Amino acid sequence: MAHGRISRLSVHDVRFPTSLSGHGSDAMHTDPDYSAAYVIIETDAEDGLKGYGITFTLGKGTEVVVCAVNALAQQVLHKDLSDIVGDFRGFYRQLTSDGQLRWLGPEKGVVHLATAAILNAVWDLWAKQEGKPLWKLLVDMDPQMLLSCIDFRYITDVLTEKDAYEILKKGQLGKKEREEQMLRHGYPAYTTSCAWLGYSDSTLKQLCAAALKDGWTRFKVKVGADLQDDIRRCRLLRDMIGPEKTLMMDANQCWDVPEAVEWMAKLAEFKPLWIEEPTSPDDILGHAAISKALAPLGIGVATGEQCHNRVIFKQLLQANALQFLQIDSCRLGSVNENLSVLLMAKKFGIPVCPHAGGVGLCELVQHLIIFDYISVSASLQNRMCEYVDHLHEHFKYPVVIKHASYLPPKDAGYSTEMKEESVKKHQYPDGEVWKKLLVAQDLCVQP
Ligand SMILES: C[C@H](O)[C@@H](O)[C@@H](O)[C@H](O)C(=O)O
Ligand SMILES: [Mg+2]
Question: Most Cβ neighbours (<10 Å): which of 60, 184, 324, 367?
Fold first, then answer.
C-alpha cells in the first residue's frame, strides 16, 4: 500500500560531457551533453524509501527544467502518496493544469519535461513501496486501477475509457505466458550506438564489428547532414551487416517535406526499415505526406521522441502519419500519459518502438514496453526497443541486455536511481567533472 506524506523534493542538474567524444550526435544536435534534471522525493514514512525521477535534456537546457521542477514542487509537497496514486488521474490533471504555469505549455515543452521528472519519481516511489519493478506493478494492476491513472481529456474522440478497458481486458488473455516469455528471453532491442553522426568511419566500423559479434541484428544510423556522407556510411554499414539484418535511419528533423522524400529516395538502396524524424516533430500532415511518398519504396516513418503529448500522437495516428510509434519515458507526462499512447497505438494497430537515445532512457522505457507486450500489444511483430550503450554505469539498477534483448528488471522501482557518487561528480557546475572542464575551457579562451 502506498503510504507516507511527501516531505521533501530536491532537484539536481546532472550533466555528462558526451559531446567531447561525439556520443549521441546527430544532424541537429551536433554537441549533445547527455543530461538530466534529477528529482528526489522523500516522505515522512519510516521505511526511508525515496523516489527518483529524471527527465532527459541536453546540457544548457537542464537549468531551465530545474527551475520548472521547483515551480511545480508545491503541487506535490505535503501530499500523501496514497492520495496521489488513489486518484492519479486527478493528480495528473492538477499538475498539468496549474492556472499560471500551464501558460508555458500546456502539456509541452519545459513544464511538461518537469512534470515527467516529478511523476517519474512518484512512480518509482510507488513501485518501491509495493516491492515490485514498475513493469510488474503495471502488469499486476487491475485494469480499472490502470485506467484511473490516465487523463483521457482530448483523446476520447479516438479512445474512450470503455475502449481502453476492452483492450486491457483482452490483454489479460495469455498474460502469464507472455510474462514468462519476457523473463526468459527479454524484449528485442536494436542499437544506435555504432553510428552517431560525429563518429568517424573507422569508429563506426569498429563498433559495428563488435556489435555483430555481440549478437546485434538491428542497427540505426544517423543521416541528414550531407548526402554523400550518408551514402558512404550507409553502404559501409549495409555491407558489414549483410542484406538480412535490419537497418533504420534517423534524420532528427533536419529536412523540409519534399527534401525528406528526395533524400530518402537516394538512400532507399540501403533498404532502411524506417526513416525517423524526417521533418519537424509538429508537422503531422508533413509526416503523412512523407509516409505516403515513401510507402512504395518500402520505407516507413517513425517519430515520437520530441512529440509533445498524447494529442499529437493521436493526430499522427489519425492522419496515417507514422508506421512506427516511438514513445519516450521522459518527454510525455510519465507513465500516466504513456499508458494512453500505448492504448491508442494498440487501437490503431501501429507498433510501438520506444525511443531510448539519452541518459537513463533505456533504464526507464524498458519497463513500459515490457508492460505493453504483456498486457496491451501481445505482439513482437515489427517491434523493438532502442538501446544505446552509454552511461549505464551511473545507475544503481542498470539495464541488463542479453542476446540483444532487454531482460526485465528485477529490482523494485522504475530503475531511475543514479549512484550518489555519479550525481555528485556530474552536477553542473560544481561537480568535480565540470569544475575541471570549465577551468580548462577558461584557460583556452584567456589570451
Ligand atoms: C541527441 C540524441 O542523442 C538523439 O540523437 C537521440 O535521442 C536519437 O534521436 C535517437 O533516436 O536515439
Ligand atoms: Mg531519434
Answer: 367
Domain that holds residue 284: 167-420
Q: Which of 18, 55, 57, 192 to mutate to test the pocket of ligand 1 (most atoms within 8 A of CB)?
A: 192
pLDDT of residue 441: 83
Query: Considering the chain, what percentage of its residues have pLDDT values greater than 90?
Result: 98
Query: Phi first, then psi: what are they for 401, rounded to 5°?
Result: -110, 130
Testing ligand 1's pocket by substitution, the residue of 15, 16, 29 carrying the most ligand atoms inside 8 A of its CB is: 29
pLDDT digits (tens, 9 = 90+) for 375-404: 999 999 999 999 999 999 999 999 999 999
Residue nearest to atom 6 of ligand 1 (CA): 357
Q: Is residue 340 part of a domain?
A: yes
Q: Is there a domain that residue 293 lies in?
A: yes
Is 333:97 a contact under the CB 8 Å cutoff? no
Q: Which atom of ligand 1 is nearest to the CA of 276?
A: 11
417 lines ligand 1 (CB under 6 A): no
Confidence of residue 446 (pLDDT cuts 50, 70, 90): low
422 lines ligand 1 (CB under 6 A): no
CATH number at residue 339: 3.20.20.120
Q: Tell me the pLDDT tens digit for each residue of 256-307.
A: 999 999 999 999 999 999 999 999 999 999 999 999 999 999 999 999 999 9
> Residues 221, 117, 281, CA angle at the centre, nearest 5°?
40
Active-site annotation, residues: 222, 355
355 Cα–ligand 2 center, Å: 7
Q: Is 250 in the pocket of ligand 1 (CB under 6 A)?
A: yes
Containing 342, the helix (H) or strand (E) segment is: helix 334-348
Alpha helices, DSSP H only, in 103-213?
A: 109-130, 134-140, 143-147, 161-171, 175-185, 201-213
HSE of 65, CA atoms in CB hemisphere, 13 A = 32
ipTM above 0.85, yes or no: yes
pTM above 0.90, yes or no: yes
Determine, yes or no, domain membership for 342. yes
Residue 107 lies in a domain: no
Q: Helix H segments across 195-298?
A: 201-213, 227-241, 257-267, 284-294
Q: In the numeric block, which cell numbers belong to residue 291?
A: 509516409
Residue 23 CA: nearest ligand 1 atom is 3
Q: How many domains does the chain have?
A: 1
Closest-lying ligand to the alpha carbon of 331?
1
